[in-house]
TrEMBL record:
One GO MF term attached to the UniProt entry: protein-lysine N-methyltransferase activity
Domain Methyltransferase intervals: 70-203
Protein name, entry field: Protein-lysine N-methyltransferase APLA_LOCUS7302
UniProt record, GO biological process: methylation
Annotated source species: Arctia plantaginis (Wood tiger moth)
Sequence similarity: Belongs to the class I-like SAM-binding methyltransferase superfamily. EFM4 family.
Enzyme class: transferase
Enzyme Commission number(s) of this protein: 2.1.1.-
């Protein structure tokens, strides 16, 4: 199902630096990308790319299934794209699922791919850095795979957008809720630092590692936070 979509990976340090700007951080890029994916789906039944690969998504899905939450826990997927994570969670029996994306074309694709078979999934066009999260309610699990990366690649004031994102995500969480984020642009330590004012680390989900130049690293980082 689909192929791996890789972001521009920028090596960053623990200093307060930003990622190099990229078109991957713009709404125009994703609008065009999802228009093409809608065409591919309509013509060939291909649901499109899965960010960082299906293996990366499945590790998080497996962790959610095994972490002890009830199947009726509220789960929101920020930047849901084609809805892959939500459809897989629906197959596992989860019943309260919401996908949001600021790209209307992504929501249309997700609905076409999954909503006919999975009525327990709702989709909504929503901009996490601009719209009010109060209308969405509270969730036991807030999930993000790649959206925080895209925000960090925004050519226009990414730091302000990242800070708004962090505040918004915190408001979405139930008091005992969990925020699960997967990134290929930020390391585990950087993610922990970015979210440390509002959240504390619960768990790092193990991901495959590589060794280069005597140093060990990961292609992606998956981290679970809870509210302070």
């Amino acid at each position: 199902m689909g192929t791996t979509l890789l972001l521009d990976i920028t090596v960053s340090t623990m200093e307060d630096t930003e990622l190099d700007p990229s078109e991957l951080g713009t709404h125009d890029y994703w609008q065009k990308a999802y228009k093409k994916e809608i065409e591919n789906y309509n013509e060939h039944g291909d649901p499109g790319d899965v960010w960082f690969g299906e293996d990366s998504a499945q590790r998080v899905i497996n962790w959610i299934c095994d972490c002890g939450v009830k199947k009726d826990v509220g789960i929101i997927d920020i930047g849901c794209g084609n809805g892959y994570t939500l459809t897989e969670l629906a197959k596992e029996g989860f019943t309260q699922l919401l996908g949001i994306d600021y790209c209307e074309e992504a929501i249309l694709l997700a609905k076409n791919v999954s909503q006919a078979d999975f009525s327990q999934i709702r989709y909504q066009v929503f901009n996490i850095t601009e719209d009010s999260v109060e209308e969405l309610g509270k969730f036991g699990i807030v999930h993000d795979k790649g959206t925080y990366d895209a925000i960090g690649l925004n050519p226009e004031d990414p730091k302000t957008h990242r800070e708004k994102y962090i505040n918004q995500v915190t408001q979405l969480l139930d008091d005992d809720g969990m925020f699960i984020i997967t990134s290929c642009n930020w390391t585990e330590d950087e993610l922990i630092k970015h979210f440390s004012e509002k959240m504390k680390l619960k768990r790092v989900i193990p991901t495959p590692q590589f060794k280069f130049g005597g140093k060990v690293g990961s292609v992606v980082s998956s981290v679970v936070f809870i509210k302070k």
